[in-house]
Amino acid sequence: MRCDKKDLLLYAVTDRSWLGGETLYSQVEKALKGGATFVQLREKELDEGRFLNEAREIKELCRKYQVPFVINDSVEIALAVDADGVHVGQSDMEAGDVRAKLGPDKIIGVSAQTVEQAVLAEKRGADYLGVGAVFPTDSKADAREVDHKILRAICEAVHIPVIAIGGISKENVMELAGSGVCGIAVISAIFAQKDIEAAAAQLRESTEKMVEV
């Protein structure tokens, strides 16, 4: 298994929006100390040189905490820093092409909104699926909501782990109980909080309860 579903329990997706004078490195470290089990580096604005340096630093940090580290969208950056893998959306390179570039031992995550997309991603070599938005979200302007019935149907249709993403917070995470997901991916629920470490710890505890229900 390239990707154990236990690693996907609390999946932290980075965002520079809430740095407030801090470094992304220190924020990610707080999230890891709080119990994040997986880190995705998501950069939409950085130039390639800075993205590369940041990816190298955060990869080493995740290695120290023995947590998988993937890059959002950029197969090139993932290859350059020897990240654990890549997460791609529906409009990015499809999973089979990513697998051809990354090789057999890297993690590939794919975003999916429908059962058809999920089944196809699994067939093409995805290791896990990120499904959402499961609640309204401000983090992605183009995110459309996925009905919880569809979320459950996706979990039943595939054999690979599924995580829910989009608008998840400590207040609503329990609403996902019984859906079949093995974890959650969050951005603002960790990185927009005053105490990142405490926020991650609280979310991890709630998610463990939600998954067991």
From TrEMBL:
A GO term, aspect molecular function: thiamine-phosphate diphosphorylase activity
Co-factor binding details: Binds 1 Mg(2+) ion per subunit.
Pathway per the UniProt entry: Cofactor biosynthesis; thiamine diphosphate biosynthesis; thiamine phosphate from 4-amino-2-methyl-5-diphosphomethylpyrimidine and 4-methyl-5-(2-phosphoethyl)-thiazole: step 1/1
Keyword Transmembrane: no
Required cofactor names: Mg(2+)
Binding residue positions for 4-amino-2-methyl-5-(diphosphooxymethyl)pyrimidine: Q40, L41, R42, E43, K44, N72, S111, K140
UniProt enzyme class: transferase
Catalysed reaction equations from the record: 2-[(2R,5Z)-2-carboxy-4-methylthiazol-5(2H)-ylidene]ethyl phosphate + 4-amino-2-methyl-5-(diphosphooxymethyl)pyrimidine + 2 H(+) = thiamine phosphate + CO2 + diphosphate; 2-(2-carboxy-4-methylthiazol-5-yl)ethyl phosphate + 4-amino-2-methyl-5-(diphosphooxymethyl)pyrimidine + 2 H(+) = thiamine phosphate + CO2 + diphosphate; 4-methyl-5-(2-phosphooxyethyl)-thiazole + 4-amino-2-methyl-5-(diphosphooxymethyl)pyrimidine + H(+) = thiamine phosphate + diphosphate
SUPFAM superfamilies, A to Z: Thiamin phosphate synthase (SSF51391)
Residues annotated to bind Mg(2+): D73, D92
Pfam families cross-referenced by the UniProt entry: TMP-TENI
Entry keyword set: Magnesium, Metal-binding, Thiamine biosynthesis, Transferase
Residues the entry annotates as binding 2-[(2R,5Z)-2-carboxy-4-methylthiazol-5(2H)-ylidene]ethyl phosphate: T137, D138, S139, G167, I187, S188
InterPro entries: Aldolase_TIM, ThiamineP_synth_sf, ThiamineP_synth_TenI, TMP_synthase
Family to which this protein belongs: Belongs to the thiamine-phosphate synthase family.
PANTHER family according to UniProt: THIAMINE-PHOSPHATE PYROPHOSPHORYLASE (PTHR20857), THIAMINE-PHOSPHATE SYNTHASE (PTHR20857:SF15)
NCBIfam families the UniProt entry points to: thiE
Name by which UniProt lists this protein: Thiamine-phosphate synthase
Organism name: Dorea acetigenes
